[in-house]
Write a structure and sequence with these properties.
74% of the residues lie in helices and 0% in strands. The protein is mainly α. It has one domain. The longest helix has 35 residues. The N and C termini lie far apart (39 Å).
Amino acid sequence: MASTSQATIPRSSAHTITGRNGLIDKYFYFFASLLFAAIVIWGFHYTVNDNLFHASPPRPMLLWFHGAAFSSWILFYFFQSALVRTHNVKWHRFFGWFGVALASVMVVLGSIIAVVMARFDWFTLHLPGTDVFLSVPWGDMLEFGPLVALAILWRKRPEFHRRLLFIATCCLLDAPFGRSDYLYDHSLFYACLDGVILLGVVRDLLVNRSVHIVYRVALPALIVWQAAMIYLWRGAPAWWHTFTSRIVA
């Protein structure tokens, strides 16, 4: 569903940006889709074999569907970006409704699998703190869902639409970043995904000489939200621990 201004503005009347900044304007979201794929591959190569393909004990079957759905989103983002880049806007809009369905499934599936895996880690692997960690995956879904919903709402406003979907996809990257023990142990996975979002800010500064309101509103709000999710996980206040332990147990 990622879009560009050419989706609604005729090429003859669109403002033309030339030189290096023109290349950034033209290819940023396409190369962002490749970066997303690279981060996912890099992150999950740490754990996917031992924790899914050859896991002992075997992981819940639902985890396979979860992995398939979220991997499909990364592929879908790349596919949609490629369609826009090749000016196949009509097909981009047609397949966009598949993205609506996929995102809806992801929000529900992501919320459920978080509880399923918390119970698995608690009762089968006997890992501590899996209940309070629910703040992270649930927090991701409470970021991703509204961002995609706004992108759908503003699908005819491409400057909003493409930035919202870019940020929404970035919000999924804490999962691959968190597969690095160092980033996980130091709670730096959110900082890493925010760094990817900042690439969009840099793109705006280079191309438009200003930062779009989507970034000016969304990024500070995300940082505050992420800090709250880290606090619930690492700080484990009594009310949160009681709430999540009842869900897991």
